[in-house]
Amino acid sequence: MFLSVFEVFKVGVGPSSSHTMGPMVAAGRFLETLRTSAFKPHGLRASLHGSLAFTGVGHATDRAVILGLAGFEPDTYDMARAEAALKEIRQEKRVTPDGLGPLSFDPEADLRFDYDTPLPGHANGLRLYATDGEGDVIRHETYYSIGGGFVLTEAELAEGGSKDDGPSVPYPFRSAAEMLEMARTDGKSVAEMKRANELTRMSSAELDTGLQRIWEVMNECMERGLSTEGELPGGLNVRRRAAAIRAGLEAERGTNLTAPHVVNDWISAYAMAVNEENAAGGQVVTAPTNGAAGVVPATIRYWMDHVPSARSSRIGEFLLTASAIGALIKHNASISGAECGCQAEVGSASAMAAGGMAAVLDGTPEQVENAAEIALEHHLGMTCDPVRGLVQVPCIERNGLGAIKAVSAASLALRGDGKHFVPLDAAIETMRQTGEDMSKKYKETALGGLAVNVPNC
Asked: What does the pLDDT look like over 367-422, one tens digit per residue?
C-alpha cells in the first residue's frame, strides 16, 4: 500500500475536503474526459446525492461544482477570482473551461440537489453530464468524494479504489503491526520508512520542498486566523474567536494570571484559527480532511512555540510520521465523516498528530503507535452533526480539543515503553465497525445530534 504524504496533506479550499474539494476535483476530471472525447459538448449538468445534497449548500458544494466546471482547481484556488467568475457564470449562464470553449450551464436549472436518490457506492455521490445542442446527454460519469479530497469514479470504486501503478516501495506496511515489525527489523523510525517510500516517486529535494510548502500553507492559514476578527459566513452569526483568545493570552504573559493549564488555550487558539479560516472558505491543507484541518498544524505550532527542544528542521519528520498513521486509517477504515462520523475526521487527525508529536519528542516506533492509538481510541463513537450543515459548530472547537488530546496522548505514550493493551490496528477496526453501525443521521447529514437540538436560525 502506498499513499503519498502529499495525498494525505493536500493544499485546498474550505470549508470541506469531501464536500468542496472533492466535487471541484470531480468536475475537473470530467472536463478532462470531455477534452479527449470525440463528441463536442454544448452544455453541462450536475446532480448531487446523499450527504452532498443534504449539506451541500452549507459546505459550498454547489459553488465547488460550478467553479470546477469552469476550470478552477483546489491547489491554485483564488477567492477573489472565484467570486468574480461565479457572478459572471450566474449572469451569462455558461462556463468557459480551457480547451472546451463556452458551454451552456445555468446553475439554477442545471445543478440539482437530489435528496431522494442516494447513490449506492458512497454517501458523497455526484453525477455530471455533458449535453448536445438539443439538450440530450452524450456523456455522463458518476463520481464519489470519499473523504480528504479523494475522488473515485463509479468504476474505480467497484475495483477497490485508484490503482498504484508506481514502483514498489521498500516498506509496504498495510497495518500498524507490519509497520512496527519492519521498523524493528531494519532499525528505522516511522518517518525514515515513510521517507524511503516517498523517494521511490520523487527526489529528496522535491520531497523536502513539498513538505516545507505544506507547513508554510498550514502556518500562513493559522496566522490569518489568529489575526482576523468578525463573523463567519453562512447565517449562524458565529464569531471568530481565535484572534481574541491569542490577544488575551499574550496580554497575560509574565503576569500572575498565567496558570500551567493555559497552554491548552494556546493549542485551542491555533486549531480554531485554522478552522475559522476553513469555515470562511480560505486556503487550508487537508490533514487529513478540511473539517479536521486544525489539529495537526496546531500540534506542530504548540511544539514549535512551547517546547524548548523543538527544531523547525524536524517538521518534515512530524508530517511524514503523521501521514503514515493517516494512510493506515484511510486504508483500513475511513477518514470520511459521511462514512464514519467525526471519529473518522477529528479522531484520525488527532491520532496523526499524536504520532507525529511522539516522533519529534524522540519516541520509539512503539511509542508513536501507542500515541496514535490513545488519541484515536478516545474519539471512538464521535458523531458528525454540523449545525445547519456548516463546518462551524461544533467543528471548530472540536479541532482544539482534538489537538489537546493529541498532545496528551503523545505525552502519556512517552511515559511508557510502548507496550500497551489495545493495538492501533484494533482501534482502527473498531472505528470502522462503529461507523458502519452509526445511523446516517450522525454522518454529516445534519439530520441528528446538535444539528437538530440547537436553534440555528
From this structure: 999 999 999 999 999 999 999 989 999 999 999 999 999 999 999 999 999 999 99
User: How far apart are alpha carbons 133 and 52 in whole angstroms?
Assistant: 29
CB-CB contact of 352 with 391 (8 Å): no
Examine the domain organization and report whether 107 and 181 are in the same domain: no
Helices (H) and strands (E) counted in the chain, each on its own, are 20, 9
Cβ neighbors of 15 (< 8 A, separation 6 or more) are 59, 60, 278, 279, 280, 281, 290, 291, 390, 391
User: Cis (ω within 30 of 0) for the bond into 423?
Assistant: no
Helix (H, G, I), strand (E, B) or coil at 433: helix
| Residue reference for cell 487550508 | 284
Answer yes or no: is pLDDT of 132 > 70: yes
Of 342, 255, 350, 232, give the one whose Cα is nearest residue 299. 350
Query: For the chain, how many structural domains are there in total?
Result: 2
> Does residue 241 belong to any structural domain of this protein?
yes
What's the confidence (pLDDT) of residue 166? 80
What cell numbers appear for 437 in the block?
A: 453501525
| Domain assignment of residue 430, yes or no | yes
Residue 24, domain extent: 17-158
R_g over Cα of the chain:
22
> Which of 226, 232, 222 lies closest to 245, judged by CA?
226
- Find out whether 446 and 385 touch, Cβ atoms under 8 Å: yes
Beta strands, E only, 51-96: 94-95
206 and 326 together in one domain: yes
